[in-house]
TrEMBL record:
Keyword tags: Hydrolase, Metal-binding
GO molecular function annotation: metal ion binding; phosphoglycolate phosphatase activity
Entry keyword Oxidoreductase: no
Single biological process term from Gene Ontology: DNA repair
InterPro entries, per the entry: HAD-like_hydrolase_sf, HAD-like_sf, HAD-SF_hydro_IA, HAD_sf
UniProt keyword Ion transport, yes or no: no
Protein name, as recorded: Putative hydrolase of the HAD superfamily
Top-level taxonomic group: Bacteria
A single cellular component GO annotation: cytosol
Taxonomic classification: Bacteria, Pseudomonadati, Pseudomonadota, Gammaproteobacteria, Pseudomonadales
Length: 234
């Protein structure tokens, strides 16, 4: 990505103190991967299947699905493919595979991970994605090579929005929150991480390449990974 399209980090402390950061905790969907796949699936493609299954219009399908989605947001059920397969009586994983070609890394992610790894950072993926969703994405994008661990919150039984997730993560991998950088596209999750005591936090300015940038409020935000790669090269 050309540097002219990649402005400096904004808000709070834009220059990260990399010598004081040992561990990188990185979200997957919207953070490393373009959220367009997930947004298109949940907001457009799945409603089409639901409409066909129930022989109703797409507009009616969305009217029925949106309240169901909102009711579960922030809970583990929202991210659970087994839950939605039961609730909607549709083969969610199979339907996801039909549009798996949309799964893609954000520009610059590979260079950033390579540089972070070369500088000896401990890199761990923490995602609310269901294990089957994680597996599907790993089939399409070779992420595993950069990570010490790939952790789905379903392993702990709590989403990242819950303090119990962070307590379970700490017990599992033993990291120093004061020397950790966490990047996520969800503001509620970043607030949960801040409550737990993680020192360095970054939001993602544009999780979905097909949507407008987000207002990230109280968090510094990365617009493209070249910003972080340039810092790591210093």
């Amino acid at each position: 990505m050309p540097s002219t399209s990649c402005p400096p980090l904004t808000m709070l402390n834009p220059q990260l103190p990399w010598s004081s950061i040992d561990t990188l905790l990185l979200d997957m969907d919207g953070t490393l991967l373009d959220l367009h796949f997930d947004n298109h699936f949940w907001l457009e493609y799945l409603p089409q299947h639901y409409a066909q299954h129930h022989n109703i219009s797409l507009a009616m399908a969305k009217l029925e699905l949106i309240p169901l989605f909102k009711e579960q947001q922030g809970t583990l059920n929202w991210y659970c493919l087994d839950y939605w397969t039961r609730e909607l009586e549709l083969p969610i994983v199979q339907i996801k595979r039909e549009i798996a070609h949309l799964i893609a890394l954000h520009p610059g992610v590979e260079d950033f991970l390579t540089l972070a790894q070369a500088r000896g950072k401990r890199i761990i993926l923490i995602t609310n994605a269901h294990p089957e969703s994680l597996s599907l994405k790993l089939e399409r994008v070779a992420l595993a090579q950069w990570f010490e661990r790939l952790i789905s919150s379903h392993q702990y039984g709590y989403p990242k929005e819950d303090q119990s997730f962070w307590q379970a993560l700490q017990a599992d991998i033993s990291f120093d929150p004061q020397r950790t950088l966490f990047i996520d596209d969800s503001l509620p999750i970043l607030r949960s991480a801040r409550q737990f005591g993680i020192q360095h936090l970054l939001a993602v300015r544009q999780p979905d390449s097909q949507s407008l940038p987000k207002v990230t409020d109280e968090f510094a935000a990365v617009s493209c990974y070249e910003q972080l790669s340039q810092q790591l090269k210093i």
